[in-house]
Each structure stands twice: as structure tokens, then as C-alpha cells.
Design brief:
single chain, 127 residues, mainly alpha, 3 domains, two-stranded antiparallel ribbon, 64% helix
Length: 127
């Protein structure tokens, strides 16, 4: 038997790799993708538990958003923010704010926008 130590919660199974290899590549080995109903009760329970995990993983994978969609959303969001911030200096001076204060405000806003873009570029490929 290739099992050296049976695993349990917090303790991994340990196998004799050489024996596993001999068994797997022996001429008598046959892979069987049998129906769960033909398995012994303990193996059938394991099969059903693994099926639940497999289906949960499949469901989770379908909920992931493709990177292209994320890139498009981020590009649109940053573009919308940039459009709102561009021309802010003119709006401030029209409202009576001194030109120097309006210029400093617009400069700070542009630096903040650049910071957002650089942080996105770190986390999103091809941004």
C-alpha cells in the first residue's frame, strides 16, 4: 500500500511516491471513471463531497469578471473623473476665486488623478 500516513484535519496524507508510480504505471492499472453508485460507501461519500466542491468552484469561476471588462470600466471611470476635473480652474476663477488659488487647486486635482491612474496601472495589466 503506497500510504505511509493517513491524513486528517491539519495533517496531510503521506504517500510513498515510488509505490504510487509503480502502481500507476503498472500494466494492470486501469482508469475507471465509474458511476458513483458503483463505488463503496466511503468512496461514494468522498465522490459526492468532491462534486459539491467542484460545482461551487465552477459557479465561482462564472462569477468572475473578465479583465477586459474591468479595464473598460476603469478607463471609463477615470475618463469621467478627468472630464469633471478638467476646466476646474476656469470654474473657480469665474466664481471669484483668485487665479493663483484656482491654479493650485487644479494642480492638486491633476496630481491626485495621476496618482489614481498610476495605482490602477500597478494593479491592472495594460492600463
Amino acid at each position: 500500500m503506497p500510504i505511509l500516513h493517513k491524513g486528517s484535519r491539519g495533517r496531510p496524507w503521506t504517500f510513498d511516491a515510488l509505490e504510487v508510480t509503480r502502481w500507476r504505471f503498472s500494466p494492470t492499472f486501469t482508469f475507471s471513471n465509474s458511476e458513483p453508485g458503483s463505488l463503496p460507501p466511503a468512496q461514494r461519500k468522498s465522490w459526492f463531497e468532491s462534486e459539491v466542491i467542484r460545482r461551487n468552484l465552477l459557479a465561482r469561476d462564472t462569477e468572475l469578471i473578465p479583465i477586459d471588462e474591468i479595464h473598460a470600466m476603469m478607463t471609463t471611470a477615470v475618463s469621467t473623473i478627468a472630464d469633471a476635473l478638467n476646466g476646474f480652474r476656469g470654474k473657480l476663477t469665474a466664481a471669484g476665486v483668485p487665479d493663483e488659488a484656482a491654479w493650485l487647486t487644479e494642480t492638486e486635482l491633476q496630481e491626485a488623478l495621476s496618482g489614481i491612474e498610476s495605482r490602477l496601472a500597478e494593479h491592472l495589466p495594460h492600463y
